């Protein structure tokens, strides 16, 4: 419902538009260049080859399997925590959400290091357990470390559902399963669809897990063709296919959503928790326990075991601290740059709503939906051909990070600005202050905390980013993500575990603080 405040519509300052466009143009031009190069005859022959169809089948199959599994796990876990009398619900809600801080390639490292002739089981118990590879390994890792997307959104939706519909269905004689299937699930559809899109796009753009498990998808083939061939036209063609696939997934989700309401009004009262039977309580506890073990506790314990074992045997950790410093530097630069870039986009999309600003907002989110390896390929090709001084430089890497993760900073800024009464800014302008003075003296101080939260989220995301970093980093600029990927592929589990545990520690603590702050807001 409207707040009762009439906002006088004024035209957006031209300088604000110029700054906002300047943020998007440097990434839009390389992507347009990539798509133009993909229209060549040689590229078309790659697009319609049998090999590309096989890669497309593998990629789509992995996306569908992972999304379905993550949705099932996330909805089941959310229902148990939010709607039943399961013991220890607060503890489980934290444990079930924490796997979100584990990148897929770190989870893949933990899974790989358990089996095989040199794996943990062989070292500890002398068991020659087979090493999981291929589709099964990629599906398992991606499902386990993406289901928290569904868990978090479904939990929030379940907390806000009006219990009267479920009570009416029970009053008409519907059983518990029928109420869940016909009343609860339809109301969860928007949240699950949004979370499923996040899972699908993450799986579509994943490079680390599929590379470590040696499962051929479009991302792995793009990197292989880019690194291993002189003629990189096939890499461009496959990157264009992946871009189209990502945009198609985005359009499909929006179409399936239709006119569904993506939010619900907070219920006047909380729904009554379902009392589980003895057998049901045991099954629920077993489910959340096993899920927490395989998605959080066991991977962390495996990494810690490899680190302790390696250090005990005198193995050197190598340049892990240098990689840590590089990761912190790149993430800090990206977070600060994203905060600055988010300001004009935030102001335009909140204070000057129009079809043009809506198109700007959609453009920002479309870039966010693109697989990271395609953005990296586009910027590499464009920089190498037209702006060589930026090729393999830290500014170019930072620009790619800002383009990829700008919506995280923008969303936080938008949420903060929407809570600021626009009459404060109008009063400033009526006193003779221009838009620049009003922005710096009124708007920015008020939305500063929101921008800082968005910058922190970008910082945490960049810490884990792999494919774009791998393609765009300066020579010798190894981050924790690159070190984990490289040492895992070579079988140096001790070095990989050290980097992985540092990455988890850096990511988990700020993420926990952000979630705690949000829950008390």
What does this structure look like?
The protein is built from 23 helices and no strands. The chain has 521 residues and is mainly alpha-helical. Helix content is 76%, strand content 0%. It has a domain of 243 residues: MetI-like (MetI-like fold, Orthogonal Bundle), CATH 1.10.3720.10. It is globular. The N terminus is likely disordered. Helix 1 crosses helix 15, helix 5 crosses helix 7 and helix 15 packs across helix 18.
Spatial separation of the terminal alpha carbons: 22 Å
The tally of helices reads 23
Counting copies of identical and different chains, the oligomeric state is single chain
Number of strands: 0
One letter per element, helices H and strands E, the order comes to: HHHHHHHHHHHHHHHHHHHHHHH
> What helical percentage do the residues reach?
over 70%
Strand % is: under 5%
CATH class of one domain: Mainly Alpha
Largest sheet: none
The rough form would be described as globular
Q: What's the CATH superfamily of one domain, by name? A: MetI-like
Write down the CATH topology of one domain: MetI-like fold
Pick out the low-confidence regions.
1-8, 259-267
The radius of gyration computed from the alpha-carbon positions, rounded to a whole number of angstroms, is: 24 Å
**What do the pLDDT scores average to?**
80
Question: What labels describe this entry?
Answer:
disordered N terminus, 521 residues, MetI-like fold, mainly alpha
């Amino acid at each position: 419902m409207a707040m009762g405040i009439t906002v006088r519509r004024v035209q957006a300052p031209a300088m604000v538009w110029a700054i906002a466009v300047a943020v998007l143009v440097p990434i839009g031009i390389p992507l347009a260049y990539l798509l133009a190069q993909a229209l060549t005859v040689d590229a078309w022959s790659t697009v319609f080859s049998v090999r590309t169809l096989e890669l497309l089948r593998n990629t789509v199959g992995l996306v569908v399997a992972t999304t379905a599994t993550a949705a099932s796990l996330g909805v089941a876990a959310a229902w148990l925590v939010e709607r039943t009398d399961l013991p220890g619900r607060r503890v489980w809600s934290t444990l079930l959400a924490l796997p979100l801080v584990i990148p897929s390639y770190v989870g893949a490292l933990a899974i790989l290091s358990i089996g095989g002739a040199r794996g943990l089981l062989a070292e500890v118990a002398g068991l020659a357990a087979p090493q999981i590879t291929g589709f099964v390994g990629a599906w398992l890792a991606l499902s386990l470390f993406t289901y928290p997307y569904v868990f978090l959104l479904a939990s929030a939706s379940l907390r806000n559902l009006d219990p009267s519909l479920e009570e009416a269905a029970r009053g008409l004689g519907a059983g518990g399963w029928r109420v869940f299937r016909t009343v609860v699930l339809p109301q969860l559809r928007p949240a699950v669809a949004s979370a499923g899109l996040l899972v699908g796009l993450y799986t579509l753009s994943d490079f680390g897990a599929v590379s470590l498990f040696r499962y051929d998808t479009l991302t792995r083939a793009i990197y292989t063709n880019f690194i291993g061939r002189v003629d990189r036209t096939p890499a461009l063609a496959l990157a264009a296919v992946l871009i189209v696939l990502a945009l198609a997934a985005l359009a499909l989700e929006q179409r399936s959503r239709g006119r569904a309401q993506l939010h619900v009004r907070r219920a006047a009262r909380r729904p009554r928790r379902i009392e589980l039977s003895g057998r049901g309580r045991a099954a629920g506890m077993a489910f959340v326990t096993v899920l927490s073990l395989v998605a959080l506790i066991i991977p962390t314990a495996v990494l810690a075991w490899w680190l302790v074992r390696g250090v005990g045997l005198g193995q050197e950790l190598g340049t892990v601290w240098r990689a840590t410093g590089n990761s912190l530097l790149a993430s800090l630069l990206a977070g600060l740059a994203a905060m600055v870039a988010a300001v004009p986009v935030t102001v335009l999309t909140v204070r000057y709503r129009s079809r043009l600003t809506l198109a700007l907002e959609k453009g920002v989110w479309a870039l966010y939906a693109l697989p990271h390896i395609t953005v990296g390929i586009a910027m590499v090709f464009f920089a190498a051909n037209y702006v060589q001084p930026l090729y393999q430089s830290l500014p170019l890497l930072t620009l790619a990070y800002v383009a990829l993760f700008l919506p995280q900073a923008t969303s936080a800024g938008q949420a903060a600005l929407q809570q600021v009464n626009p009459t404060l800014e109008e009063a400033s302008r009526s006193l003779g202050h221009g838009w620049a003075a009003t922005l710096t003296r009124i708007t920015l101080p008020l939305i500063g905390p929101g921008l800082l939260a968005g910058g922190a989220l970008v910082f945490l995301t960049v810490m884990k980013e792999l494919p774009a970093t791998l393609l765009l980093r300066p020579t010798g600029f190894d981050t924790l993500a690159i070190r984990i990927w490289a040492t895992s592929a070579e079988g140096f589990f001790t070095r990989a575990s050290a980097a992985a545990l540092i990455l988890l520690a850096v990511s988990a603590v700020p993420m926990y603080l952000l979630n705690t702050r949000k829950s008390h807001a």
